[in-house]
Amino acid sequence: MYKRQDKLKPYEQIRNQEGLKDEEIAYIGDDLPDLCILKRVGFSAAVANARDEVKAVCDYVTIAEGGHGAVREIVEMILKRQEKFFNLIEELSQ
């Protein structure tokens, strides 16, 4: 069984290394060890087949299951909200 520190310590190292604040981070989780990070970040998401306890604390739950396009779903949603998605599609099609 994972302990809270198993994910929290690396999360904090990456956050600090990149000079980010918790509220500037999006995090996707699926299991109980993710809860400590999901409750801190600015945008939390769970995959469709995540534990119910994880889904309950998240800002968004994907339609797709983990391993079946869930991360892509979230990335595209974020890019669309930032109004960057269609510019990216245009750049890729040139």
Describe this structure in words.
By secondary structure, the protein is mainly alpha-helical. It is built from 5 helices and 3 strands; from the N terminus they run αβαβαβαα. The protein has helices spanning 4-18, 35-38, 52-55, 70-81, 85-92; strands at 26-29, 43-46, 60-61. A 3-stranded parallel sheet has the order 1-2-3. The longest helix is centred in the first third of the chain and has 15 residues, at 4-18.
SSE diagram, text form:
Layout: H1 4-18, E1 26-29, H2 35-38, E2 43-46, H3 52-55, E3 60-61, H4 70-81, H5 85-92
Parallel strand pairs: 1-2, 2-3
- Uncertain runs are none
- The assigned structural class equals mainly alpha
Number of helices: 5
Any idea what the radius of gyration is? 15 Å
Portion in strands: 5-15%
Number of strands: 3
Short description:
The chain is mainly α and about 90 residues long. It has helices at about 5-20, 35-40, 50-55, 70-80, 85-90, and strands at about 25-30, 45, 60.
Give a quick set of tags describing it.
three-stranded parallel β-sheet, 94 residues, mainly alpha, 3 strands, globular
